[in-house]
Amino acid sequence: MLHKSARPGYKRVVKNTALVLIAAEAVAFGVSYAGWYRLNTNREFRHYVKENYPTVLESYYQVGEFLGGDSSVRNIDEQIWAQERAAKGVGVGGTKP
C-alpha cells in the first residue's frame, strides 16, 4: 500500500502567500490602468486631478513626455483651461480681475 505523506505546512503558507500577492498585484495593475485610461481620455477628469492632486497630474504629464516625446497634451490642456477661465471672467490665481 502506498503511503501518502502530508505536505509540510510552510509550503502551503508560501503557496497561499504567493497566490495572494499575485492577485493583489493584478488588482493594483487593473486599478492603475483604469486611472491612467481615465486621465488619458477625459480632460475634465484631468482638470479635477489638477485641482485636487497636482502631483499626480504632473507625474502623468512627465511619463507621457518621456514615452511620447512631446508635451502637446499639457499645452492643449493649459490653453483650454485658460480659455475657460477667461470665459468665466476669472483670473489665473482664481480671482476675478
What structural keywords apply?
4 helices, 97 residues, mainly alpha
Summed up:
It comes from Aedes aegypti. The chain has helices at 9-41, 43-52, 54-68, 72-88.
Describe this structure in words.
There is one protein chain. The protein is mainly alpha-helical. The protein has a domain at 32-90. The chain has helices at residues 9-41, 43-52, 54-68, 72-88. Helix 2 (43-52) packs across helix 3. The mean pLDDT is 87.
Structural category: mainly alpha
- How would you name the oligomeric state of the polypeptide chains in this document? single chain
Q: Tell me the overall shape.
A: rod-shaped
Regions with pLDDT < 50 over 5+ consecutive residues? none
| Helical amount | over 70%
Residue-averaged pLDDT, rounded?
A: 87
Question: What is the overall number of helices?
Answer: 4
How many E-type strands? 0
Distance between the termini: 92 Å
Describe the largest sheet.
none
- The SSE string, one letter per element, is HHHH
Q: Radius of gyration from the CA trace?
A: 24 Å
Strand content: under 5%
